[in-house]
Specification:
Helix content is 14%, strand content 33%. It has a nine-stranded mixed β-sheet, with helices on one face. Strands 1, 5, 8, 9, 10, 11 and 12 form a seven-stranded mixed β-sheet that branches. Strands 17, 18, 19, 24, 25 and 29 form a six-stranded mixed β-sheet that branches. The protein has 515 residues and is α+β, with helices and mostly antiparallel strands.
């Protein structure tokens, strides 16, 4: 079917209709116009995916649905910001999509008439690119029972506001190529074993104020028209419908928004287990913790310094640098940080070590007994440069063993390159990437309240053991084999979060895009 595909106004109606259809009462509850994922088990969703009813009582899917319902009933709101902010047109919600490598995604609209894309959010890279007049690119992916989710493909010739970026543009830069015949800037981005190649274009990115209702904010941005994708961009390895680079480079969207005085030179991302928020221009709050970025002129990234690591009450003044990269599903650490954390972690674990019968990327996994519904692990805390502490809320993740039993793994991978704080360690925080002050800010948040309902346990400076972390057991699959996705280096899919949000995304595309 075709619905509202001839204009931005049509896209507005499409987004509004979808949101109202999902949950007519949710707008007031959140204080922003965002996509809610609470009523994922509506009749329409069940019909589309051939589901007979709600998830079985007692499963993680059931409790996830109930938790989201509670959030609506309690009327939770996002924190008000003292800085004017904008977000994507349609809402500031992000989605952690299990079917696409567990990265965080947003629905964005680009061009005239507006087209909808599902893009991976990547603080580890600068370039925003979309599949475009493809020679090779993914045009759909399987969602369930043989059904396919059709993906939009951008075409400059179909957008009246599109224009190629000339080779003499400052955004083309010395590292880009030039197609001399058409005087068009070319690019190639490599992500491990995957890549995107094409030309750079200017077109309208449709944003909106972070208010209810939204005011439309249309901004011309430069992005990649990806004519040729390789590797996992052709499969379900993440980013198959585009990558939204959020790095420090001048070509990133946050940099463009700041250069045009649309927003402050800062943005925030909030990471919850199945969803989150993104806001451009957000400077955070006065009570957030901060640490300075380590700037490299040749390749600036969100690189910070850790000065101390604590696992339970075992502390070392180990210093290393790491990049906060939302394009990496997992945290990756080099030696000696990796071994210090792993050795002190396993020395405080009482469960039996477990080895999967196939190769996985995690060295330390443990089996739980049939009677266990929770387990206790030591806390993991990083002290950052400037003395602020970053408590890791999710140092482990739960798995289903190959024999069907329950288990869990330490959620760190040994790095063969740089140190990366992946999105799994960002869970439970609203992170502020302040490029004006050149600091990373963080504050505990569930992405609905202004402050988390529970404060994390703190390490006692007197030396007594801190309270351990107790984790409950949701139903999650075994950890995946080693694969490669986007990010500053190779990274892997995570078993941290529920992937049911893809159901809502599937219904969204199925209902409102030509199939």
């Amino acid at each position: 079917m075709t619905c509202f595909k001839k204009s931005l106004f049509g896209s507005c109606l499409m987004l509004i209709a979808f949101t109202c259809w999902i949950n007519a009462n949710s707008i007031d509850a959140f204080g922003t116009f965002g996509f809610d994922i609470h009523h994922r088990y509506s009749d329409t969703v069940k019909e589309f995916l051939n589901l007979d009813g709600l998830p079985e009582k007692g499963t993680v899917d059931y409790y996830t649905a109930m938790a989201h319902r509670d959030q609506l009933l309690k009327g939770r709101r996002l924190a008000a910001s003292t800085t004017p902010t904008v977000t994507f047109f349609g809402g500031n919600q992000t989605y952690n999509v299990r079917a696409l490598s567990y990265l965080h995604y947003s629905l964005i609209t680009v061009g005239t008439p507006a087209l909808l894309f599902l893009v991976a959010l990547d603080t580890g890279g600068d370039l925003f690119w979309l599949p475009c007049d493809c020679i090779t690119c993914a045009r759909n992916f399987n969602i369930s029972d043989g059904k396919k989710l059709e993906l939009n493909i951008y075409s400059p010739s179909n957008s009246t506001t599109s224009s190629p970026l000339p080779c003499n543009s400052t955004l083309c830069g010395p590292t880009r190529g030039c197609l001399t015949r058409s005087n068009t800037c070319a690019y190639q981005e490599v992500y491990g074993a995957s890549s995107s190649t094409g030309i750079l274009v200017d077109d309208v990115l449709h944003l909106g104020t972070n208010t209810n209702p939204q005011d439309i904010v249309d901004v011309s941005v430069t992005f990649g028209c990806g004519k040729n994708q390789t590797g996992y961009f052709l499969e379900s390895g993440g980013g198959i419908n585009g990558i939204f680079g959020l790095g420090m480079g001048g070509i990133s969207v946050p940099s463009i928004l700041a250069s045009k005085s649309v927003t402050a030179n800062s943005f925030s991302m909030c990471f919850a287990e199945s969803s989150g928020r993104i806001e451009f221009g957000d400077k955070g709050s006065a009570d957030q913790k901060t640490t300075p970025f380590n700037l490299q002129k040749s390749n600036p990234t969100y690189n910070i310094t850790v000065t101390q690591v604590a696992v339970g009450n075992n502390v070392t003044d180990l210093e290393f640098t790491a990049v906060f990269d939302s394009g990496s599903a997992f945290t990756r650490l080099n030696e000696p940080a990796y071994s210090f954390i792993a050795n002190n972690f396993i020395s405080q674990i009482t469960e039996t070590p477990y080895k999967f019968p196939y190769e996985v990327i995690f060295e330390y996994c443990y089996a739980l007994s049939a009677t266990q519904d929770s387990y206790i692990t030591p806390n993991l805390t990083f002290t950052m440069k400037g003395e602020s502490q970053f408590y890791v809320t999710t140092p482990t993740f739960n798995v289903i063993r190959a024999d069907g039993g329950q288990g869990y793994c330490l959620a760190i991978v040994k790095s063969k390159g740089i140190n990366i704080i992946g999105q799994n360690f960002m869970t439970g925080y609203r992170l502020v990437f302040d490029r004006d002050e050149m600091v990373l800010g963080w504050k505990e948040s569930d992405c609905y309240d202004s402050i988390s309902t529970e404060s994390p346990p703190k390490r006692n400076p007197t030396g007594s053991p801190p309270p351990p972390t107790r984790s409950r057991l949701p139903q999650l699959p075994p950890p995946p084999p080693a694969t490669t996705t986007i990010g500053t280096t190779t990274s892997d899919v995570s078993s941290m979060t529920s992937g049911l949000v893809v159901v809502i995304l599937a219904v969204f595309f199925h209902s409102f895009i030509v199939l």
